[in-house]
Amino acid sequence: MVPFVIACGQCFFCQKSLPAACDNSNPADKADASEIAFGQVMTGAFGYSHLTGGYAGGQAEYARVPYSDYGPIKIPDGVEDEKVLFLSDIFPTGWMAAENCQIERGDTVAVWGCGPVGLFAIKCAFLQGAGRVIAIDHHPNRLALARANGAEVLNYHEVRVREALQEMTAGLGPDSCIDAVGMESHGFSPDNIVDAVKTSTRMGTDRAHVLRETIMAVRKGGTVSVPGVYGGFADKVPVGAFMQKGLTLKTGQTHVQRYLPALLEMILDGRIDTTDLISHRLPLEQAPEAYRNFKENQNEWTKVVLHPE
């Protein structure tokens, strides 16, 4: 199993168990772009963008694996591929999203977005001791999957999310909020409409509706965890609420290498089902069709497994 982030295992950050901040895996001819965009050189990642090294291999029949002596792990014989497939990305991402919430036993965690990462964040929040998880989305099938994994659900087309969360938590707000949506948030709220105009006219890059909503919804002294990807600039983020409420914000690409051994053990012990969100299994040659449907039919297409043979 190969992590989606590429790390050397030897630099300052890898030695601190922060492989998603590796200093050496982004090639020199690509590294300058991320330093200009983000202030520091980003780690390399498979199939992501030129900001993270321009590596091929997000979904490919074959891929070169730099630093293959650090990170990739051998899977025991007899384990079905699908059970461990998501160790490369979404299972560790959901685990780190929950871990960043600093969950105390019995906490209430709200998760925005019931896509693959959000669903794994729900599973992992419970594994880490959450008493309640509240899932927010509008696709019926995805909300049903969240409910099947123990979450209470809110359809944001039917309720005002912040007010509903206040009512469900006796006026406190959730202890932690997870933004598993990121920069492509959709909807007809005023801020999202402004964001859409700005992104279409290149006056902005990100739609930060969910980030804004998590900051406003979380309880005072709570934590906002952001596994959802943001890529550039956004405005109207309520920094006043962030400061006045005394919040903690934790985010970042996933430190997959740090988590792999323990998460593999959970799978082998049967503590987590990693396959219930798979909706389609297709040959690799149908990947373009799968991507199109994953974008346009999100209610029915939850997670696609591509088979190279």
Shape: globular
> What is the number of beta strands?
10
Query: Structural class, please?
Result: alpha/beta
Order of helices and strands: EHHEHHEHEHEHEHHEHEHEHE
The parts where pLDDT drops under 50 for at least 5 residues are: none
Trace the largest sheet across and list its strands.
5-4-3-6-7-8
Helicity range of the residues?
25-40%
* Strand percent estimate: 5-15%
Q: State the end-to-end distance.
A: 18 Å
Mean pLDDT: 91
Largest sheet: 6 strands, parallel
Radius of gyration (CA) equals: 19 Å
- Report the total helices: 12
Describe the structure concisely for a colleague:
The protein is an alpha/beta fold and 309 residues long. Helices cover 35% and strands 13% of the residues.
Task: Write up this protein.
- The structure is a single chain.
- The protein has about 300 residues and is an alpha/beta fold.
- It is about 35% helix and about 15% strand.
- The chain has twelve helices and ten strands.
- The protein has helices at about 10-15, 30-40, 80-85, 90-100, 115-125, 140-150, 160-170, 190-200, 210-215, 240-245, 255-270, 285-295, and strands at about 5, 45, 110, 130-135, 150-155, 175-180, 225, 250, 280-285, 305.
- The strands form three sheets. A six-stranded parallel beta sheet has the order 5-4-3-6-7-8, sandwiched between helices. Strands 1-2 form a two-stranded antiparallel ribbon. A two-stranded parallel ribbon has the order 9-10.
- Helix 7 packs parallel to helix 9.
- The mean pLDDT is about 90.
